Amino acid sequence: MQGTAPIQIVLTTEYTLTKIKGSKAYFDIVQQYAPAPGTDGEAVRLSGAGKGKMTYDSKLLQLLALKTESEMDMSVKSGDKVSMIKTKTSSDITTTVTPVK
């Protein structure tokens, strides 16, 4: 389609260790959305953030749970038209590990 180009977005995620209990480590998550370096700042503007929680088992070397919620606002200009895009994303991941018999 003429006038469209891929838009690259950088999602930066920061994990903060909040607790260790046994082999489980608990983290708070903070996320930030930004345009990728080199993105035309006149054609694409975006911002967004998210937060969540993660549980990791160091004995099993396995992520057990990850839950995040985020929002992003973006405007894309093509010629004399501007599209406004608003997204909300929720992730809820759980892992169950069953030992091999």
Q: How is the topology of this model organized?
A:
Elements: E1 9-21, E2 24-35, E3 44-57, E4 62-78, E5 81-94
Antiparallel strand pairs: 1-2, 2-3, 3-4, 4-5
The N- to C-terminal Cα distance equals 54 Å
Q: Unreliable stretches, pLDDT < 50, 5 or more residues?
A: none
How much helix is in the residues? under 10%
Shape: elongated
Can you give a write-up of this model?
Helices cover 0% and strands 69% of the residues. The chain has a domain at 7-63. The radius of gyration is 19 Å and the shape is elongated. The mean pLDDT is 90. It has a five-stranded antiparallel beta sheet, with no helix packed on it. It has strands spanning 9-21, 24-35, 44-57, 62-78, 81-94. By secondary structure, it is an all-beta fold. A hairpin with a 2-residue loop joins strand 1 (9-21) and strand 2 (24-35).
Summarize the structure.
The protein has 101 residues and is mainly β. It has no helices and five strands.
